Amino acid sequence: MKLDEFFVTGDPLILGSQIAIGLTMVGLVVLITYLKKWKWLWNEWFTTVDHKKIGIMYIIAGVLMFFRGGVDGLMMKAQTSRPNMEFLDAQHYDEVFTTHGVVMILFMAMPMLIGIINVVMPLQIGARDVAFPKLNALSFWTFFVGAMLFNISFVIGGSPDAGWTSYFPLAGKEFSPDVGNNYYAIALQIAGIGTLASGINFIVTILKMRAPGMKLLKMPMFTWTTLVTSVLIVAAFPILTVALALMTLDRIFGAHFFTVAAGGDPMLWLNLFWLWGHPEVYIVVLPAFGMFSEVIATFSRKNLFGYVTMVVSIVAIAFLSMLVWVHHFYTMGNSAAVNSVFSITTMMIAIPTGVKIFNWLFTMRKGRIQFSNAMLWALAFIPCFTIGGVTGVMLAMAAADYQYHNTMFLVAHFHYVLIPGVVFAVFAGLYYWWPKMFGFKLNEKIGKWHFWLFVIGFNLTFMPMFFVGLDGMSRRMYTYSESTGWGAWLGVSAVGGLILAAGFAALVYNIYWSFRYASRDIGGDPWDARTLEWATASPVQEYNFAVIPEVTDHDEFWKMKKEGRNTLKKEDVKDIHMPSNSGIPIIFSVAIGIVGFFLVFEWNTLAAIFSVGIIAGLIANSFDYDDGYHIPAKKVWETERKWRGDL
Amino acid sequence: MKKQFPLNHVVGFILSVVLTIFAVFIALETDFTTTIKLWIIGAFAIFQAFVQLIMFMHMTEGKAKVANIINISYSIFLAVVIVAGSIWILTTGHAAH
Fold first, then answer.
1. A335 has a chain B CB within 8 A of its CB
2. What is the pLDDT of residue A1?
3. In terms of domains, do B29 and B57 share one?
């Protein structure tokens, strides 16, 4: 391979990005070296096993990927804003919608949610960390390496261009001979390892490390949704692992699992992809439901309405989510029996989801609602998400789906589900739990700008897509003629995209402003909240709880406050056992990333040589007998006195 | 706690590798009809699943009976949905003609 094939050349947009990436990298290295922060970064962040810091790194990565995926989205909006636009050519447009989808689902939604879970869930159950802190660090670094590998594709070698679903035969070697789709197969595989490990980690943490007295039905709702999501991750991600492995064998090693000519079946790819892909939708949306439950209860000053039905409905959603995958390809020509069964299972999901919507409404009923920023996102979520859900029921009917399939109507539908369902939730969660992470609140006034710009922009962007979709515009069309009459709709949609981007900019400005000017004197419980994470300092002490609390209720912290039990006695404070930092996860993940990079370019010998690094990492880890360290009781007591003040 | 040599794991690992290589051998290097090959490979697969369950998943150990029953039934549910579901979808309808 020659150097001019290695780097993508010939497009001024991409050349600009290459220069910008190069300058940013050099700038970062120079800045960190100038500030002498390398040691600090390595000791405090890169090698950390603290669930809160890992969560924060996940969230930072998620915000960066949101920017990347958002720019992709804006480029698509620009290209379709007028008929016969010539901003992107067909190939570039294909690459942009492919990376937009992959980045937004796997590298934005997933890390945002896993990040917030990491920060909040151990605190909610009164634990000092997750069950396997080092594995948690490995999860983050494999995710991060996978995400970065995927992201460099557009400047080195070329992006995948077969859609985020990468359907065969298009995604096969015959029709996509470039390295782009190798990036898809390898980078998702690496990131998937991390997600699977997170799922296992969270299940064990929740089942084994709850504070005494916290029965399963006394867990906060966010912890419940985390548990069910983790079970779904463990059920569904291995299917993606297998599908991607088969894809890799097909593309790099000449197998034919998905090519008809050699006895394979491209529909097998669709089948496996959606066997993972549909549960994946619920993997991202269930923790979001949990966040809304916490936010709505806190800011309505009431406990959550219908706690048990909430639990039953998330379990029902998870169960049904494994049984609906065919609704993504009704049009493949299934038998009537197949399409009917999957139509019915799909429509059934609306029942438990409806139960949840009404539970949230009843939680607010007669509550004393405070219109804080977190609550605003939860309020906007309900109508917007309901539009997404109801159009979903329309798509669920197999006979009707033959009309809607692969139109912009579908695109509008899933953006109406995923943006209110996940992005609004992440914003609600960030405003709500920000003080726990950083020790200050985000500014409410700038937050209102963020909220209104984003919600208005979102509706303007995606509502017109329903109409052009019903009018026959298929998804992934990169251009259209004036006679279609879609110009006005898509023009409005493009303006909406800009407003959406302004909303995101307001969030970034809010983070900057609050970091510099917001008050640090907010105490441990700035929202007068209900669950255990608020019984800690803001930002949380490294050991979380000086004394593990005894739990009697699912709004335990609320009860503690009412009964005056949230004080600390000196004789209860003991030495606290903590896990040591470890460099193995990051080094091991980088080794996987290097092997992955060679595999992408099909330099198999180099990949084989460097896999020695992965094996060495595994062996080195087996001989790691580090048992952690203890924080002496005296030090714990001093830290507690500092933030509690009154002891 | 005494550290023991993980005999179970090593035996399970070797058995898994051998069974997999054997399946590849049957598929690529023998002259059986496809049906017979599928039956043999299928039998190996089920045998290997049990090896994994017993040697690695410690199905026979532990006191948490209820948890084990939930785990096993959930796994069977998933296996049936994924395997039987896929066969149903890919072999009926247009694919059948």
1. yes
2. 57
3. yes
